[in-house]
């Protein structure tokens, strides 16, 4: 079976309920009908701020075509953890999954691999999909140790997670930190090499079935570079930041992901 392709917009700390609804409407209205009616070639996700999640229910599955993602998820189901939102609470407002381990959370909120592993486990146990983000900073890229770094992040972020839980719900996103919001994209060659390395590691750890999961690229993805990145091999779609805030740019990327051979 072909791996699922994904195009997911990470809206970060942008938009309010009204503007989020407007953007969701523009995206859904602009989706090519064949993506909605035929065998779906790319699943489409959006990750608005927590307080706009429930407002997007009319555009998200099952009512609409979008999959809804939180930008974070607590490491525990519930309890005395001020400010946290657990997987059950996300699912309760119609959320399908959560982005976990984004570099902005690792950097600004000091989330380490151990915490991320607990979040991944909690979210999967709670029935959510998980988009697990990994990626190296510029210094590590320049030192040439980027592949080992990313594999160690991946290995630590999945420590203790039973692969039985993955099913089709674990997606990996490779997002080199130096490419996020900078306009610098990894070359198709570099992205392809990292994605292949990740796939090889997944196969070594979990066998062919465990490795058969989508690996997305993120970092300054735009309509102009999406086709080249899709052609790199082992790239199953994108986690899009800035360009996902413009419906037309996001829709172009969706089309390129769906049409890539
Ligand atoms: O962080 C990202 C997606 O999660 C990428 O952001 P940009 O597309 O703005 O570089």
TrEMBL record:
Task performed by this protein: Involved in the gluconeogenesis. Catalyzes stereospecifically the conversion of dihydroxyacetone phosphate (DHAP) to D-glyceraldehyde-3-phosphate (G3P).
The family this protein is said to belong to: Belongs to the triosephosphate isomerase family.
Top EC class of this enzyme: isomerase
Residues involved in substrate binding: 10-12, 181, 220, 241-242
One Gene Ontology biological process: glycolytic process
A GO CC term attached to the entry: cytosol
GO MF annotations in UniProt: triose-phosphate isomerase activity
InterPro entries (alphabetical): Aldolase_TIM, TIM_sf, TrioseP_Isoase_bac/euk, Triosephosphate_isomerase, Triosephosphate_isomerase_AS
CDD domains registered for this protein in UniProt: TIM (cd00311)
Organism (species): Nannocystis exedens
Protein name (record): Triosephosphate isomerase
Keywords carried by this UniProt record: Cytoplasm, Gluconeogenesis, Glycolysis, Isomerase
Enzyme Commission number(s): 5.3.1.1
Active site: 102, 175
This protein's pathway: Carbohydrate biosynthesis; gluconeogenesis; Carbohydrate degradation; glycolysis; D-glyceraldehyde 3-phosphate from glycerone phosphate: step 1/1
Designated gene of the protein: tpiA
Subunit structure: Homodimer.
NCBIfam families reported for this sequence: tim (TIGR00419)
Reaction(s) the record says it catalyses: D-glyceraldehyde 3-phosphate = dihydroxyacetone phosphate
Entry superkingdom: Bacteria
Compartments (UniProt record): Cytoplasm
